[in-house]
Each structure stands twice: as structure tokens, then as C-alpha cells.
Task: structure prediction
Amino acid sequence: MYRQEFMNAAIKEAVKAFKEDEVPIGCVIVKDEKIIAKAHNKKEAKKDSTAHSEIECIKKASKKLNNWHLDGLDLYTTLEPCIMCTGAIINSRIKNVYFAAKDPKGGAFVSNVKIKRIKGINHYPEYKYVEDEMYIKLLKEFFKGKRKI
Result:
């Protein structure tokens, strides 16, 4: 079940990314109503195209649980996951995904790829788009600043 406090924690991670001049995307993973992992984009810092917040967060949760199976866990992310992150979500068996903004260019849940339309995948996480105006404003502010450079 969706809880705003967990999305707020993901947004705090996005703010950290913003301050580090990374695209402001944050993520938390929840088990038994407690955050067990949190992360934000680190692509620029790590010079790694795979260092998306969701991937970083999944790695932390897996390490904490000493298991790549994240069955029954919830993932809260600020931006609709891309196809790479969606693949990691599927492969780690995350149960629920909640996101605060759609990504019309790269989103893989509702905006672009629509992962549930692809037949034969071994696990389909449930998802819910929960629009968050505060986060959308942060994202727009980041890209507005980039366009001025």
C-alpha cells in the first residue's frame, strides 16, 4: 500500500542528486513498512551510465538482505523507471513500484515501453503513478538550469 512518507524519502534523495548536479532522481526500497535502502542518481560522479538511483538502491537492498530476490518489497522512485531499471526491478522480483513523475521519453511502465504489454516475462511488478507536484517542479528546475548553460 502506498505511503507518502516513503515517496518523501525518495524525493529527499532526489534533492541530494540535484545538489550534486546529477539528474534529480531518488529511490527507496521498503520492507515490512521500513526503508531498507535508499539511493540517488550517481551517473556523473561514477562516470557510469548504469548508476541510476533504482539500480543503486536495488544493489544496496540486495546487499543488506544478502539476497538478490527482493520478493514482496516496494520500490518508491521519483521518476518512472527506464527500461534498464525496469529490467532490474523485474529480475529482483520487486512487488510494487510507485513513481512521482512520468518519463515520456524513457519510461517503461506507462509512458513509452509499457512493460506489461510484453508477453512472457517471468514477473510483472504492480505499479502506481502518484503525481507529486513538488518533485516535478524540482525536475523542471534542474533542466531549466541546464538549458541556460
Notes: The longest strand covers residues 34-40. The chain has a mean pLDDT of 95. The radius of gyration is 14 Å. Residues 41 and 139 are 13 Å apart (CA to CA).
